[in-house]
Amino acid sequence: MQLGIVGLGKMGFNMRERLRSAGIEVIGYDPNPEVSDVGSLSELVESLQAPRNVWVMVPAGAATEGVIRELNDLLASGDLIVDGGNSRYTQDATHAQLLKGNGIHYVDVGVSGGVWGRTEGYALMAGGESEDIERLMPVFDALRPDGPREESFVHAGGVGAGHYAKMIHNGVEYGVMQAYAEGYDLLEGSGIVDDVRGVVRAWQRGTVIRSWLLELLVKALEDDPNFAEISGWVEDSGEGRWTVMEAIDKAVPAPVITAALFARFASRDEDSDAMKAVAALRQQFGGHAVRPADD
Question: What is each CA distance from 58 to 41, 45, 173, 212, in whole angstroms?
Fold first, then answer.
């Protein structure tokens, strides 16, 4: 199995290393020559054997759009492009239609795992034709964690289904993080609990609210007790907004996810313990930037 990867940032770099450790030949391109295997997209395409498989792992929006259009001119009929970034699902049909004109196949994959994916594996939600999914299965199996495939990989549906599933995943993530953050805030301000970090740590086993996010909250508190070094300013990457917009469009009540999104907006006007916890969690699982406490 051979794969080209475009984009060797926080996610793409680690994905390349995990795939190589599984015996898959990976050739990566990135504008940063220190991490890139080739000097250009055209050189990447020339280095791959037909039919080629190219995984695009760049920021959603204009960057992804530009790479897909350039690859459309470079690749040939029978080749396949995967968009593994956080593109909005509505763009997938447009990309698939563009590539279809040259006989190029298209798959969209929602990827969850953040900066920990290299060692822990990635959860994958794929959209596209069944034969294209099957063609990429060695890659999916190398990227996902050990264990039953159905617990970390899903062929969610046709083109767009993978990114749609990832969008909803991220919306749920907003709500879960906000709940942990508000619980931490209440503990911190209680005046009754002396060992707040100890309480959160004790929730990791035997409780119904245990999770990987909770483990990361414990780690964040160990790294920076009381979150003294960061501000409570929290960015939103777009998928939380898209989830809320989808809920409005479908008339599906989503009060928890909506409130979590609005809390991030509010974080930019005030500095609360709860939003410091959310900022710290985003840094823990995704390597997202935080603002220092004096910013």
Answer: 13, 17, 21, 26
The CATH architecture one would assign to domain 2-157 is 3-Layer(aba) Sandwich (3.40)
The pair of structure tokens assigned to 202 is 């004790």
Size of the chain, expressed as the number of residues it contains: 295
Q: How far is CA 17 from the centre of its chain?
A: 17
- Stated pTM of the model: 0.90
Distance, in Å, from the CA atom of 200 to the CA atom of 187, rounded to the nearest integer, reads: 9
Percent of residues, the chain, with pLDDT higher than 70: 99
> In which residue are the tokens 């959310």 written?
278
Q: What angle do CA 212, 202, 204 make, to 5 degrees?
A: 20
Query: Comparing 237 with 221, which gets the higher pLDDT?
Result: 221
**80: which DSSP letter?**
E
Catalytic residue positions, numbered: 166, 173
Structural domain spans, the chain = 2-157, 166-286
Cα–Cα distance, 109 to 104 (Å, whole number):
16
| CA angle 170–175–180, rounded 5-degree value | 120
Task: State the sign of the Cα–Cα–Cα–Cα dihedral 7, 93, 99, 77.
Answer: positive
121 phi-psi bin (left φ>0, alpha ψ -120 to 50, beta other): left
What does each C-alpha distance from 178 to 174, 175, 253 come to in angstroms? 6, 5, 18
Q: What is the pLDDT of residues 78-95, one digit of tens each?
A: 999 999 999 999 999 999
> Considering only the top CATH level, what class is 166-286?
mainly alpha
d(CA 201, CA 215): 8
Average pLDDT, the chain: 94
CA pair distance 287, 11, nearest whole angstrom: 10
Residue 72 CA: distances (Å) to CA of 54, 75, 77, 271: 11, 6, 10, 46
And the tokens for 106? 């298209």
